[in-house]
Amino acid sequence: MTALVRLQDVRKTYPLPRSSPFVPRRQVYAVNGVSLDIRAGDSLGVVGESGCGKSTLARLVMALEAPDSGRVEFAGQDLNRLAPLALRGARRDFQMVFQDPYGSLDPRQSVERIVAEPLEALERLPRGERRDRVADAMMTVGLRPADAAKYPHEFSGGQRQRIAIARALITRPKLIVADEAVSALDVSVQAQVLNLMADLQQKHGVTYLFISHNLAVVDHLCSRVAVMYLGRVVETGATATVFARPAHPYTRALLAALPQPAPPPPGQPRRHAQL
Questions:
Q1: Pairwise CA distance, residues 240 & 242, whole Å
Q2: Which of 65, 141, 216, 242 is 20 to 30 A from residue 271's alpha carbon, by CA?
């Protein structure tokens, strides 16, 4: 299967604060020599502890930041070599869902305007067609078209994240980058949003890059996983294989840190721990 997204030896550094004006400024590698392929219609989970470079990787894939070196290709195009107008046009094919369903939606705007925002940035549509596209996106994520007239404060956290997903779907993208998209939600709501994303992939063939520190979430949604440690990808493979037979010591440490169920009462069989 053809790679929709390809990262080739991508590196990104950030300057550290100086301890003294006479000391040269040091750099820290947020992403250090990462090479990855994401196949069309696939779902790749990127896992690792906080500060390992997952969110920086997401911003590089979205072309929100440029790498210091290496290539970030989408559908065979180096995003960082595109002219601004060409990059703007390419953005219809990749959208992002952010972590915070409260902070990522403008409370002053109606849901209709929030969901339609990517359309306004990319193309001019008649008002009627724009409303039809918003209504279709709302129904796709399990919300009523009438909800488009409301404002974000009128919805629960899970509903707000559905609105964010509807906004990402409005341009009918090939790729959705989800950066900790369910970490701020209750466990039961997490399951609803994850099931929704899985259904969308099955029905529409959406490709996912799913950033998370939660191994159970990645195991539920993603067919492949990449483990990041200190800016590097230390292990990749099919999710079931990596989680069942981790090869790298850091992957084994992540899996060992998962909570284990309490011992059963005497006389009852022990259940296997689930990711």
A1: 6
A2: 242
Strand partners, 228: 233
Radius of gyration of the chain (CA): 20
pTM over 0.70: yes
DSSP string computed for 83-141: -HHHHHHHGGGEEEE-S-TTTTS-TTS-HHHHHHHHHHHH----HHHHHHHHHHHHHHT
Q: Does the pLDDT of residue 73 top 60, yes or no? A: yes
Burial of 230 (0-12, 13-18, 19+ CB in 10 A): middle
Reported as a single tens digit per residue, the pLDDT across 173-224 is 999 999 988 887 788 788 888 888 888 898 888 999 999 988 988 998 999 9
DSSP H or E segment with residue 176: strand 175-179
Within a 13 Å sphere around the CA of 271, how many CA atoms are in the beta-carbon half? 8
Contact between 16 and 217 (Cβ < 8 Å): no
CB of 115 closer than 8 Å to CB of 196: no
Q: Are 101 and 157 in contact (CB under 8 A)?
A: yes
Angle 127-140/111-122 helices, nearest 10 degrees?
A: 120
Please count the other Cβ atoms lying within 10 Å of the Cβ belonging to residue 258.
Answer: 13
Closest alpha carbon to 53 in 258, 265, 212, 232:
232
Helix axes 127-140, 157-169, angle to 10 degrees: 130
Helix (H, G, I), strand (E, B) or coil at 38: strand
